[in-house]
Amino acid sequence: MRLTPLALAAGLAFVGAGVRAQAPDAPAESVPPSPPQLIPDRKLTAPPGGEAGRRLPIVLRAQEVRSRPNLDAVAEGDAEFRRGGTVIQSDRLSYDQAEDLAIARGHVRIERQGAIYWGPELQLRVQRFEGFFLEPEFAFPELGSGGRADRIDFLDNSRARLSNALYTSCPRDGDAEPDWVLQARAVRMDFDANEGVAEGAVLRFLGVPILGGPEISFPLTDERKSGWLPPSIGLDSRSGFELTVPYYWNIAPNRDATIAPWLSTRRGAGLQTEFRYLEPSLGGTLNLDLLPHDQVAGRSRSAWQWQHEGRFGDSAFYSANLRHVSDDGWWKDFPDSRRSLTPRLLSSDADVEQPLRLGEAEGVAYLRMQRWQVLQDSDQRVISPYQRSPQTGVRLGGSVAGLSYSAETEFNRFTLPDGEDDGTRLTGDRVHLLASVGHRFGEPGWWLEPRLAFNAASYRTDQRMANGERSASRSVPTFSLDFGVELERETSGFGRALRQTLEPRLLYVRTPYEKQSDLPNFDSFGKDFNFQSIYTPNAFSGVDRVSDSNLLTAGVTSRVVDAVNGKELFRLGVVQRYLFSDQRVTPQADGTPDGEPFDQRFSDLLLLGSTSLVPSWTLDGTVQYSPEISRTVRSVVGARYSPGPFRTVSATYRFTRGLSEQVEVGWQWPLFGRVPTAAERGSRSMIGAAAGGGGACSGTWYSVGRFNYSTKDSRITDSILGVEYDAGCWIGRFVAERLSTGRSEATTRLMFQLELVGLSRLGSNPLGVLKDNIPGYTLLREDRRDPISSDE
């Protein structure tokens, strides 16, 4: 276990603070000049050692000073001693120059590099930094934490020992014990070795011991050190109560590992591991999860992931991201393990890239492999994408004589994952060439860009295609003409200077019809119909399908931006497509013999709007309206209200006619107690009056959550509900998450976390879940990685 703040509390005793002389502005002739004033400077470094340190001057001031030159001095009444980075204040101070010994008594105070120490008596050999401080207290205003000890013995510039030390970020009022306190019988510290050892350490929360050990080792800085990390606990509807106790192993400056024994009340014991490495030309991470005997499944289970990247020579780059789990049910039983956007489609890929430069053209040559593991343990079957084994090609681009050009040629071998080949899908090879050339005319305020593109592909399949052949080829040219205007004017409104724009745009596309229904479709899918895709020449992604086109897309967008900071305050857009002739290769028909050509002259109308003009409100929405049926086909409308820190409520409505209708609501809102102001957000000095007493932990309750409700199915799909309690010096979190894993299946997890501000976080970490799922969620404390935390 690592206890960096406690180490810092005592360790800063070795780090000096300098002073700097600051002279006031030049006085008028009639006013006597003021003497220079010494002002503490916390950013200066410790004084140099050796002979240079001994030559540093001594500054001693007090209400009364008695001195014997080159022998000793005694200062009484607001005494202050300064030498290089050492500053001592007290009621009475004596200094023996021959022994280099300073003795301070009565309200002794040292302030250095953001830390404050005070106590009744200090004896210190200044140059060697040897001595002791009796009954010292210390505070860190920036951290809002501090503590005390019966005695600090300074052994030399790098070693010290604390007796009966205490550390907390909670205020100490009278004799009452702080809400949380870390106490140790003795603490030994060696800053050269970056090691501290606490003997008889106990962490108490609300008077209850929650963590301890006879001897605990910890690092003294943010540098890594081997040791046990705080345990993580959780509750899962599939695995029961879970306990994870990670051990961090600092193998070398460029290599480390985390080994975490894991225990589940339902499944048994397992192990989670992570190994990281970083070399001058390569680096990566290897994760391995083992469950030797799952008591529920009755078998051994495992999962692993390897991420690696590096360079060959000066420019070639290679990478690998490989993943595998032992069985189809892993994604349901361990939903938080190695989170993925597609938990049922596990991609493994590796690639090598070599940058190219041919004359004025720049590009890259590449070789890639991609495979999929499909997890089918659900009542909803997943259709697997094709694997590429291999994919190799060259991509070039550049400009010459005002013409911009690009070209890509590629070979792919398409296969299906094991167990996914049902005999109805083609596999085989494809070679393709994509090329385009264009020229952009225009000046600021308008542009006109004609472009000619070419898509050619040749196929050889393992099975016979629809026409009975095993090989085929096709080539499709496309001409496009893109024209746009950007108009703007200065205006004002809502008490601010504004700039309004008007941006009409026209795109004409002409692509001849080429029959493609007999050809395989390895990687083409219909693009989503939105403001971005409507301005692209092809209705398909990928290479295998090219939509025939004789159409014009026309749209206009108007924006209102703040003329001072450029922030967009309002946007309104409308766009529609007009067909001059029927379209036969479309995402709906896909050019098949049974497919009907698309003959609707005017496409659906797309409307877009967003605004943040109303204070604290953000509104946005997109609507797809069909003039043929005079009804909305699809819409997404959202609103968010965020009147201040830790206050946000959002709602989103999603509708697709005939398919789905969902309402999503998310929030973070205080329930009870004082909420920090914007100026206090993230400020650690607000926590408990610097641990030196005064003030009290003010508790604030927050509600957090998000849920998706399907009105079509009349059920809640995924949901999160939790509460956070901020006591100032500690934060408690309780979050429940329900993840849908099928039409009638779901996994529920309960996450508990206790964050001791300035020390560590204990328990399972719900912060990633809250940040990823609640729009506008704000951390109650700044997201500062704690070397003793087991969070990420």
Q: Give the averaged pLDDT, no decimals.
A: 84
Q: Give the overall form.
A: elongated
Helix content: under 10%
Q: Distance N terminus to C terminus?
A: 16 Å
Commentary on this structure:
The strands form 3 sheets. The protein has a 26-stranded antiparallel barrel. It has a 6-stranded antiparallel beta barrel with strand order 8-9-12-13-11-10. Strands 1-2 form a two-stranded antiparallel ribbon. It is elongated. It is built from 4 helices and 47 strands. The protein has 792 residues and is mainly beta.
In a few lines, what is going on in this structure?
Among the domains are: 4-160, Lipopolysaccharide (LPS) transport protein A like domain (lipopolysaccharide transport protein A fold, Sandwich), CATH 2.60.450.10; 426-602, no CATH class; 614-792, no CATH class. It is built from four helices and 47 strands. The chain has a 26-stranded antiparallel barrel.
List descriptors.
six-stranded antiparallel beta barrel, 792 residues, 26-stranded antiparallel barrel, 57% strand, 4 helices, 47 strands, elongated, lipopolysaccharide transport protein A fold, disordered N terminus, mainly beta
